[in-house]
Write a structure and sequence with these properties.
By secondary structure, the chain is α/β, with parallel strands linked by helices. The chain has 22 helices and 20 strands. The chain is 38% helix and 17% strand.
């Protein structure tokens, strides 16, 4: 299966084999009992071993799986090891069975047939020949008259569409569009697909792979933007597509228009998805496949497409290997193999004297015309203004007392765990009653005892007088429910909550529950004043809420890049009003509070967060930084 310099995209697939190279499950004797474990190989971190020795280990693994599912991640981060989420589920399943019969080994995990590809990690085993396009400074737009008259493209959107047409006309294998959030990447890609389908009546199917929560938005946006006749859209999930190869089903798929699916369904049904010939393959939120060698990443790279387009506003989250992996999907071989790329570009980031801007220019030069990125500050000159509003409120006596008690317990040695101390300070800064529950307090008492809540209702009171809409970003579910109750009492509005429990699609929504997009549509359809409560994690990407021009960050995200993504739900193309972003803060005259400390740290890191090549995970506020500023000590982790 030598795929070197193969000309066809399908040449990357080596075979349909049992997936063993990256995940080796085992059951072996441990002292006087049998235990479950696995050896995991990751290109960037080497080999590690995972052991599930007891019920506590299993509960921790299952908790990590639930967190990964909530965030729609493809990897589970268990202790110091990253595991493909499907492998983690299998490991948990066999561990559960093994723990019930520790005296003898249970049968090995079910083996699954998957496609084996040339991964390009140690050497370039597969590269497309046409990967030498130079950097062009001008792209010619071929217009699509089917765009509805009510929509007019922005200049940068015209450039983005012309760029995709340029790649297609020059027979490029693909490219990465890494525009800042809110600049209309979805419209640009849909315009290109619709233009291509009208220009080529005998076209092959188009496939869009996106997080499941965004599939509904892709379908509604296509229906909204373009006039008839339109391409038929089919949503395929794991419930629809067989896991085993089905020749008849593949033949049906080959006749479809636009196929929408999510990363997990693609991974599960890869034997069928990857047997279809597509004209265009699109990855939305392409950072979902940033890890080389995982089942989801390999399935994506095995897709056969005339043109492959990756979309993400955060091409580098954890390391520069994220960018390498995405570009290896778009243009295999362009960025060399993973090991060489990491040595040349990733390693220098760890050195204090490295010129990050120069390194970025070098990487951009290497990517040439296969990469395009525009920032709001550069291209969206017609976006309305964005105004930041910070209000510091003195803690009421109940909140200050609860805060001081936590600090005193740590300083005196009653509580020695700083991580737990920081977590408790974070909760008390939102509301002092969150530690024990807020259900037993009436709404006015809840307001009277929290500085941050007082500032928040003050903001919303003014928003209500303007008859405008507001998004309130809140991390903890207990806080979300508390605010929903307070808002209902004060404003007569039962605010919708979008969090990890909200069904991502209509199909998964029960009759009494709306999907995420459905909740947003309802919120936006109400005339005038309205409130919606969102988790910055569940709603931090892909959702468009331009009916709201006020954003309150009741909870601050540790990562300024993630916080900015949340703000961009409102501050994006389509927003017609000035946007106001509010930061309510609890403070006290006798000490520098948690809110003030976190705000300072986030402000320092915001500039780095805007860099194309700087890992967004690296700008996240770390516990030792908070500990140092709050107590003059670092955390031992």
């Amino acid at each position: 299966r030598d795929g070197r310099n193969a000309q066809c995209i399908g040449g990357r697939i080596g075979d349909s084999l049992i997936y063993k190279p990256k995940f080796y499950p085992f059951v072996s004797p441990y002292k006087s009992e049998w235990i479950t474990g696995a050896t995991v190989e990751m290109p960037e971190s080497g080999t590690s071993e995972v052991l599930i020795k007891n019920e506590d280990d299993l509960e921790e693994l299952e908790r990590c799986i639930r967190e990964g599912e909530c965030k729609e991640e493809t990897l589970v981060h268990f202790r110091d090891t990253s595991i493909d989420i499907a492998d983690a589920r299998s490991l948990a399943d066999i561990a559960r069975r093994q723990l019930t019969q520790p005296d003898k080994p249970v049968k090995d995990m079910k083996q699954r047939k998957v496609l084996i590809i040339e991964e390009n990690t140690e050497e370039v085993g597969f590269a497309v020949q046409n990967n030498s396009l130079g950097k062009s400074s001008h792209y010619v737009l071929y217009e699509n008259s089917a765009l509805n008259d009510s929509f007019k493209l922005k200049a940068h959107q015209e450039e983005g569409i012309a760029w995709m047409q340029y790649l297609f006309n020059h027979k490029a294998s693909g490219g990465l569009i890494a525009d800042d959030m809110g600049l209309g990447k979805t419209l640009q890609v849909l315009y290109f697909i619709d233009w291509h389908s009208r220009r080529h009546p005998d076209h092959k199917p188009y496939i869009v792979v996106a997080p499941v929560s965004l599939l509904e938005n892709w379908e509604s946006e296509y229906q909204r933007f373009f006039s008839s006749p339109k391409l038929d859209i089919v949503r395929l999930t794991s419930h629809d597509i067989p896991r085993q190869f089905d020749k008849d089903y593949v033949a049906r798929m080959q006749k479809m228009g636009i196929i929408l699916t999510n990363y997990e369904s693609l991974r599960n049904g890869q034997l069928n998805f990857c047997a279809v010939d597509y004209d265009v393959v699109v990855l939305d939120e392409a950072q979902k496949v940033k890890s080389p060698g995982t089942l989801a990443t390999n399935a994506v790279k095995a897709l056969k497409g005339r043109l492959k387009i990756a979309m993400t506003g955060t091409p580098v989250e954890n390391s520069l290997l994220d960018l390498w992996c995405i570009m290896d999907f778009c243009v295999p071989g362009l960025m060399d193999n993973a090991k060489t790329f990491a040595h040349k570009y990733q390693a220098p980031l760890k050195k204090a004297g490295t010129d990050i801007e120069e390194l970025g220019r070098e990487i951009h030069e290497k990517m040439g015309s296969y990469f395009i990125r525009r920032m709001k500050s550069d291209v969206a000159k017609d976006l309305p203004k964005k105004e930041i509003v910070t209000e510091k409120r003195q803690m009421p006596k109940e909140q200050e007392s609860a805060y001081r008690k936590i600090v005193d317990n740590y300083v005196s040695g009653v509580q020695t765990d700083m991580l737990s101390t920081i977590s408790r300070l974070r909760l008390v800064s939102e509301h002092p009653y969150l530690l024990e529950g807020t259900e037993d307090y009436d709404e006015q008492e809840l307001i009277d005892t929290s500085a941050r809540l007082q500032a928040t209702v003050s903001f919303i009171d003014k928003i209500k007088t303007r008859n405008e809409k507001v998004i309130v970003f809140v991390l903890f579910k207990e806080s979300q429910r508390m605010l929903q109750r307070v808002f209902h009492h004060r404003y007569g509005i039962l605010a919708k909550i979008i969090n990890g429990d909200t069904p991502p699609t209509v199909q998964k929504a029960k009759a009494t529950r709306m999907s995420r997009q459905g909740s947003i549509n309802y919120f936006q359809s109400v005339d005038g004043f309205n409130i919606i409560i969102m988790s910055p994690i569940a709603a931090g990407m892909g959702l468009n809420v331009t009916a709201a021009n006020h954003v309150i960050h009741y909870s601050r995200h540790w990562n300024p890049a993630k916080e900015q993504q949340a703000t961009d739900r409102a501050y994006r193309i389509g927003q017609e009003k000035d946007v106001f972003v509010y930061y309510p803060m609890a403070v006290c005259k006798g000490f520098r509070s948690f809110d003030e400390t976190l705000d300072d740290l986030l402000a320092r890191k915001t500039k780095l967060a805007s860099s194309t090549i700087y890992p967004t995970a690296s700008v996240e506020v770390k516990p030792d930084e908070l500990g140092s500023m709050l107590f003059g000590k670092t955390v031992n982790i």
